[in-house]
Amino acid sequence: MAIKTRFTELFGVEHPIARGGMQWVGKAELVSAVANAGGLGVITALTQPTPDDLRQEIDRTRKLTDKPFGVNLTILPAINLPPYFEYRKAIIDSGINIVETAGYKPQEHVDHFKEHGIKVIHKCTAVRHALSAERMGVDAISIDGMECAGHPGEDDIPGLILIPAAADKVKIPMLASGGFGDGRGLVAALALGADGINMGTRFCATKEAPIHENFKQRMVELDERGTNLIFRTMHNTARMAKNVVSDKVVAIEKKGGAKFGDVQHLVTGVRGRAGLEGGDTEHGIWTAGMVMGLMHDIPTCEELISRIVREAEVIIQALPRMLAPFRVLANA
What we know:
By secondary structure, this protein is of the alpha/beta class. The chain is built from 14 helices and 10 strands.
């Protein structure tokens, strides 16, 4: 039994499972492993220091897989913006035909990609944002419930409500994101109206993920309570793994009147990256979702995706048997 959806048909993948862009993690070895296992892997463009480095990473990925994969481009408001046009050009010139966008005012980027026939998935944290992206002309939506790692938005709507609320209004294919890590989640997402799932944290704890083993093991050890929401008082909420550093940020914010400058030394990307590379899980902040409560091992991507699909198939095949007694009563 194969699970085919609008997502698998549109993007040419075997299974309705995607691995979205993740800073420092979305590299060739993980992207290709997801692709080879039948999912959609995505390179994180801004993990690469320059557009030329992105070109090289795309080439490196192509040497590891002949399956479809994409590139994530996250647009963030900043004083010193990355050279977005040059990154877009690197994506286009490299012949990429799937892009995942996320972040601030994506219209310019979506238009540029669509001019070159590239399919665009846009990540959203609210139904209104999904509808806006649909009007912009994107091909699919990834809708993130508040359980997700990274930035869940400010509405605090969990996936159980957000996914069907979006499915009621969004007409294009939609991935469910935030809290997914097994076959039960995939079936639930499909039942709620999504066309597949987009996983981040779960793929971090795989053998191919290019992060230190200490972080993978820590994700397995933590449970669903193992995250902190930081930057809440600054209206830029981010879900991070619970550690000494994120605890300090929360404590500073609880005092009231905190500004970014008060926590900047704790949350710098340089500090977080140093921790990821050196293996010190307490050194800086690092993103992780509540799905850690469902993560109990560190499989290969092939093992993980095969297991999720197999679990989902068993559940789907069992559903008609659950209805059998009710059919008998209805016909009595």
